[in-house]
Amino acid sequence: MVMVVFFWILFFILFYTYMGYSILIAFIYVLKRAFRKDKVAISEENYEPEVCLFVTAFNEKDYVHQKVENSFSLEYPKQKIQYLWITDGSDDGTPELLKQYPEMEVYHLPERRGKIHAMNRGMQFVKAPIVIFSDTNTTLGKESIKEIVEQFNNPKVGCVAGEKRIVSKEKDAAAGAGEGLYWKYESWLKKMDAGVNSAVGGVGELFAIRKDLFQEVEPDTLLDDFIISLRIAQKGYKIAYTPNAYAEETASLNVKEELKRKIRIAAGGIQTLFRLKELMNPFKYGMLSWQYFSHKVLRWTISPISLFLLLVVNLVIVFNSGLWTEATWFTLFLYLQLFCYLLAFIGWYFENKQVRVKALFAPFYFVAINYASIAGIIRYLKGKQSVNWEKSKRA
Questions:
Q1: How far apart are CA 289 and CA 297, in angstroms?
Q2: DSSP of 23-46, one letter per residue?
Q3: Could you tell me the pTM of the whole model?
Q4: 297: which DSSP letter?
Q5: If pLDDT is split at 50, 70 and 90, which confidence band does 365 have?
């Protein structure tokens, strides 16, 4: 009886995390759009403030020209864009390449102390009221700045999250197929969150804030985008989401490279729970607490453990009851789980043999990222996660 109760608890956690919350937030989103009569408040007509395009880079010489040309191509008055690069620790010629472009403001220190230290240091050089953060290896959509600025015309918005898009290639490995599907789902969920109340954090590839709302972040911070954006939300501002402002990048080269990234993110997620523990108080933050818990906390903590425990508990129930050949719920669900893990194993096998069957990569990717979440928790608790990124190789 105890194992049956445990089974249903685990089952509910997983169902709620990956389906239930999505259904609920989408339902509220539809209701709110159907009955909302208020117009979005705007601060002024013809709103076109100065902006700072802020990029931190560590040994990114292979992407410098691509990023610079993309930055110059963005549709916004050039005289209103401050192009700011912080290149701490770069010793591959990145600062020298950037200095070929007089429009770029480049601030370099020879010592590498991590991305967040570079961001904290770089904020003193920002002259514009809006700061747009972007990664070096991403390409921004031409109207991204205009779309972001439009969101800031609402005085209640303190942060804007852009959309991350994975450039799909036919030759993509499991990482590419899985990562692409993941970000399509994540982008849809961000749209629902923002439409109901507020998006739950920005992504480092493209997000923007009001300069006056920035507060210096602890130098050992692993997920700067989450900490910066959610602390702004804690101040009572909304995190808007606009899919028309997007950053494109290629997928991780393979699952091994993707796991490096996911393990770090998972470790950062645990750190974030401690740094933003007040955000779990629904009496203070209301719906934002529910969104944060449902969208992030469960994925970072309980759900990955529940996924693997569910199989063990299901096996124990069937084994102890001798139900192997009977068509009960527990038996059928066990066989379903085993079949899904078989697909994941086949996906892993094909990945190693470089056979591209993308339909089998989704279950493999799902199992892999949940494993990465547990590995990230362990790494953080052991104090072994460095603040410096170990960059994942891209396709």
A1: 10
A2: HHHHHHHHHHHHH--PPPP-S-TT
A3: 0.89
A4: I
A5: confident
23-82: per-residue pLDDT in tens?
999 999 999 988 876 555 666 678 999 999 999 999 899 999 999 999 999 999 999 999
Which among 311, 313, 314, 342 has a CA at the least distance from the CA of 330?
314
pLDDT digits 0-9 by tens, 283-302 = 999 999 999 999 999 999 99
- Name beta bridge partners: 84: 54, 105
- List the domain boundaries for the chain: 51-253
Average of per-residue pLDDT across 364-371:
88
In Å, what is the CA distance from 364 to each residue of 97, 152, 197, 352? 40, 40, 33, 12
Which CB contacts under 8 angstroms, 24+ apart, belong to 150-153?
Answer: 150/47, 150/242, 151/240, 151/242, 152/47, 152/49, 152/208, 152/210, 153/42, 153/43, 153/44, 153/47
Tell me how far apart the alpha carbons of residues 308 and 253 are, in angstroms, rounded to a whole number.
26
Strands 51-56 and 81-86: parallel
Query: Mean pLDDT across the chain, nearest whole number?
Result: 88
List the structure tokens of 40.
């979005």
Contact 375, 263 (CB under 8 A): yes
Lowest mean pLDDT among 20-34, 145-159, 326-340: 326-340
Distance, in Å, from the CA atom of 359 to the CA atom of 343, rounded to the nearest integer, reads 9
Closest CA to 308 of 257, 372, 260, 258: 372
| DSSP 8-state assignment for residue 251 | P
Element (H, E) at 302: helix 302-321
- Alpha carbons 244 and 296: distance in angstroms, whole number: 23
> Torsion angle, CA of 35/37/40/42, rounded to 10 degrees?
180
DSSP 328: -
Q: In Å, how far from its chain's centre is CA 157?
A: 19
CATH superfamily ID and name for 51-253 = Spore Coat Polysaccharide Biosynthesis Protein SpsA; Chain A (3.90.550.10)
